[in-house]
Every structure is written in C-alpha cells, then in structure tokens.
TrEMBL record, chain A:
GO biological process terms, semicolon-separated: glycerol catabolic process
NCBIfam families: dha_L_ycgS (TIGR02365)
PROSITE patterns registered for this protein in UniProt: DHAL
Source superkingdom: Bacteria
Protein keywords: Kinase, Transferase
Gene Ontology molecular functions: glycerone kinase activity
Organism: Geodermatophilus poikilotrophus
Keyword Transferase part of the UniProt annotation: yes
One protein family per Pfam: Dak2
The keyword Protease belongs to this UniProt entry's keyword annotation: no
Domain DhaL: 7-204
Name of the molecule in the record: Dihydroxyacetone kinase DhaL subunit
Gene Ontology cellular-component annotations: cytosol
Automatic annotation (TrEMBL), chain B:
Matching Gene3D superfamilies: Phosphotransferase system, mannose-type IIA component
Protein name: phosphoenolpyruvate--glycerone phosphotransferase
Origin species: Geodermatophilus poikilotrophus
Swiss-Prot/TrEMBL catalytic activity: dihydroxyacetone + phosphoenolpyruvate = dihydroxyacetone phosphate + pyruvate
Coiled-coil ranges from the UniProt annotation: none
Pfam families in UniProt: EIIA-man (PF03610)
Length: 210, 141
C-alpha cells in the first residue's frame, strides 16, 4: 500500500516549514545561548524557499520531492544546517524505494547516517543527531512490532523530543558551541530542537495514512 | 593549465580580499581562482551549489584545490563534492590549510606549474614560514 507518496512528503515538508517559521524565534534564542544566533532565521529562510520550490516545480516522484528540498536547503540556508539538513534530504531521496512505512524508515535512517558522516558527529555530541537517532530507532522498533505508520511516527516524535530535552546537560563537541566547552551545558541544542520539529511534522502530516 | 583553486568563505569580502592579496604576490601571472562566498542574499554564509559551480569553472582537468574558512564552509565544501560529476570529484582536494596562508602557498606553487598534490601540500605548509619566524610550534601556546 502506498501511503508515503509525493503528496504526503510534500505535506511533511510544508508542515516542517510551518513549525520552523512558528518557532523561528525560539530556535534562534536557543542558538544565541551557545551558537551564532542564526539557526531559526537560516532554517526558516531555507524551508520557506523549499516550499516555494515545490510549488514551482511540483513532482509526482517522492524521491524528486526530497531532492528538491535538499538542493534548496543547500543553496539557501547559509549556515551549517544547510549542508546538514541538505545531506539528510539528499541521502533520504537516494534511498527512498517504495511507498510504505518501511521505505520511509529506511530513507530517514539513510538521512541520519548522512548527517553522521557529514558532521563527523555522534550521539551525545549535543547535535541534531541526539533527536534524529532516537527517532529513527523508535520508528524502526514500532514498525517491527507491527504498529501502523502513524502510530510509529508518533513514537518517533516522542523519542525525538526526549532526545532533544536530554541535550540540555550535555557539553557540545561540535560546531561553534564546542568553543564554549563546559559553558555549553545547561542549554538545549538548537539543532536537536529543529530536528524534533522535523519528526513531529512527519507524525502530523502523515497522521491517518495508515 | 595550472591547477585550479577555489576559495570558500562565509564572507564575499573576505574571499575577494584574500584573492586580491594573493594576486598581489603574483603580478602578471595567470591564476585560475574561483570564489564561492556569502549566502544567496549576499550575507554571511556558504552555499554548496555555488562551490560546486566554482569547482567546475576552474577545473581544467589537472585538478582543483579548495581552500575554506571554517564551520559550515567545511560542511558545504564536502557537500559540494556530492553535487559535482564523478570524474571532477576525483580531481578535487579539500585542503585543511589556513585560508589566507594556504591560498598564497597554493597559488605560488600552482603558478609555477606544480601538480595538484604538490599544490595541496604547499597549502598545508602555509603556516610554516610564520611559525618558523615567530618560533611558535604549531598547536602550542
């Protein structure tokens, strides 16, 4: 059964863009504590451009939808989240094969692996991986347990949020925040916060699709 | 043809000034230097698609050495390699050298007709003259 088609992925991207726009100031505030205070603005600019690109060049091909998002983010974000989210969508696009929950989970896992490779980071470094990794695990587990995709995405969103919250006491080991050393502890990582929105957007946009 | 060079920076002004400084050291010499700097609106940022275009523009078949500032410039340069053709990718070296010193070293070597690996090695050695002069070993102090 095809539940993850181009329209569903477009809805996911639009919902992510909406959440990023809505929480733009919160993301930037988190980034001003430990980074260079541009995460909300950068990602909002990138996702607004991605939604516009999908409107200009809509596609029935799910992989093409993800590719358009990737290249748009790479081009328009400017900061580190451009190549990182861009690589996430690029690898997800290259892996997506089929329209069921397992295909989506494999694509998200490939995206996660791409971010690991691009950022040379791992879980616990206080990055977006701390939200994305638990989300991929929860999604795989729920699908393996026979849960429906929307329920599995709900579990993934919950795992992402827990992972995001767990970044607060961590000391940053990557990016501008790593210059702060111990002083980076006590703040939630902005990348983990935006990555949680990405997973929450998937749960919302694909709700009721089985 | 000389090895191509690409300067990646968050700042267009910084990249242009580094190139200007380098050209000043090589008066009258032909240099294939591309710049990919700033975001799409001219603000601070990096754009992997612009880097990929710059690599393609300076690639004459003898290789390209990419110098970059920091942070997302590094990530964008790596991402750019996913966007260029396979045969071009094999000819590109992303240099961990310091931007200004590395660029000057690379440009002088490239202008002398050295191959890509030699140019990349000279870029990497870019801090050596300053370190020798100031007597400060790398990574200490």
């Amino acid at each position: 059964m095809t539940v993850v088609d181009a329209a569903a992925l477009t809805a996911w991207v639009r919902e992510f863009a909406r959440l990023v726009h809505e929480q733009r100031d919160t993301l930037t505030q988190l980034d001003s504590a430990i980074g260079d205070a541009d995460h909300g603005a950068n990602l909002d600019r990138g996702m607004t451009a991605a939604v516009a690109a999908l409107e200009t060049t809509p596609s029935d091909d799910p992989a093409a939808v993800l590719k358009t998002v990737a290249t748009t983010l790479i081009k328009t974000v400017g900061g580190a989240s451009g190549p990182l989210y861009g690589t996430f969508f690029l690898r997800a696009s290259g892996t997506l094969d089929g329209g069921d929950g397992a295909a989506l989970a494999a694509a998200l896992r490939a995206g996660y692996d791409g971010v690991v490779a691009r950022g040379k980071a791992e879980r616990g470094d206080k990055t977006m991986l701390d939200a994305l990794g638990p989300a991929c695990d929860a999604l795989d587990e729920a699908l393996a347990a026979g849960k429906a995709l929307d329920e599995a995405l709900g579990a993934a969103a919950e795992a992402a949020a827990q992972g995001r919250d767990a970044t607060e006491p961590l000391v940053a080991r990557k990016g501008r925040a790593s210059y702060l050393g111990e002083r980076s502890a006590g703040h939630v990582d902005p990348g983990a916060a935006s990555a949680t929105l990405l997973v929450e957007a998937a749960a919302t946009a694909l709700a009721g699709r089985g | 043809m000389p090895v191509g060079l690409v300067v990646v920076s968050h700042s267009r002004a910084l990249a242009d000034a580094a190139v200007e400084l380098t050209r000043g050291m090589l008066p009258g010499r032909e240099l294939a230097v591309g710049v990919a700097a700033g975001d799409v609106d001219g603000g601070l940022g990096t754009d992997a698609t612009a880097i990929a275009d710059a690599i393609a523009a300076v690639d004459s078949g003898d290789g390209v050495v990419v110098l970059m500032d920091l942070g997302s410039a590094v990530l964008s340069a790596e991402t750019a390699l996913e966007l260029v053709d396979d045969d071009v990718r094999e000819r590109v070296v992303l240099s961990p050298a310091p931007l200004v010193e590395g660029l000057v070293g690379a440009a002088v070597t490239a202008a002398a007709g050295a191959d890509r690996d030699r140019v990349a090695a000279e870029a990497l050695r870019g801090l050596a003259p300053k370190q020798a002069h100031l007597g400060e070993p790398a990574g200490e102090g």
